[in-house]
Amino acid sequence: MPAPTSSRTLWKGAISFGLVHIPVTLHSATAESRMKFNLLDKSSMTPVGNRQVNKSTGEAMQREEIVKGFEVEKDQFVVLTPDEIKAAMPHSTQTIDIEAFVDREQIPSVYFNKPYYVSPGGKGGQKPFALLRETLERTGKVGIAKVVISTKQHLAMLVPQGKGLVLNLLRWADEVRDTAGLAWPGDDVKVSAAELKMAEQLVAAMAGDWQPDLFHDEFREKLMALVEQKAEEGGLRSVAPLPGEEEPASAEVIDLTELLRRSLKGNGAAAAPAAKKSPPARETAANDEAAPVRKAAARKSSSTARATAKPATRRKSG
């Protein structure tokens, strides 16, 4: 099942080539689905965080005691100051500057890095956006561009897809490894006509349309099934609150799942009176990078509430 559509705008700017200027917005085209485990103390069930520790002495380091060094040779570093690093950062122009149009087939898949959906930035960008998309579709070309996102410069490929455009961030040439030395078949390896025919018949027999829903992350599904099974069997353990985070127990049983559901719908203010007032719900996309973490936290909180809260008295049905 594909991830929900993202409505969250990650970047605002314009596509620029020649004298053409098309206002656009970027939206995440992927969603992280890997399971994330929290580190806990086995005995106390308190969270274990990441600490900046000196690997030689084992002592915790303060932020002001840490500098950034680039390793030039083995164990030989050059230290750069924050001001020096800031001065080298690319200037954000808020434009996707197309520098060339090339055939789509010419770009090897190893260069593909991360895709973003591109959407027109307002009513004024609808027609030029559609014109660019249609032109790329008819010519079989893609736009090779440079764009700065979050202070980092990227090489990118602007590709038509359906009624829209996709900006696929590309790897730089020095990030793609050379194939020299790999044991790929050489010209001396011959394939007979009979072998080729049988292989083609096998491919034809297994051929079909691209249906991504048919393929699943079986490892993740098995882990999630195991988590749910252990939770139902009473395997939930409450995480001990950190010092200063303890809250007085409430005698009223709160349906945390319902509160979370209402909060996600933008009705967090209508929470139960006895519950601690929640901060305003922040507008989020269903498939942005942090969504799986929030969903996991919601499931975890819901399950914990069911395990630790006093069961409510059921009303007998008529």
From TrEMBL:
UniProt xrefs under InterPro entries: DNA_bd_Ku70/Ku80, Prok_Ku, SPOC-like_C_dom_sf
Superkingdom of the source species: Bacteria
Keywords: DNA damage, DNA recombination, DNA repair, DNA-binding
GO molecular function: double-stranded DNA binding
Family listed: Belongs to the prokaryotic Ku family.
Record's function text: With LigD forms a non-homologous end joining (NHEJ) DNA repair enzyme, which repairs dsDNA breaks with reduced fidelity. Binds linear dsDNA with 5'- and 3'- overhangs but not closed circular dsDNA nor ssDNA. Recruits and stimulates the ligase activity of LigD.
Protein's name in the database: Non-homologous end joining protein Ku
Species: Ramlibacter ginsenosidimutans
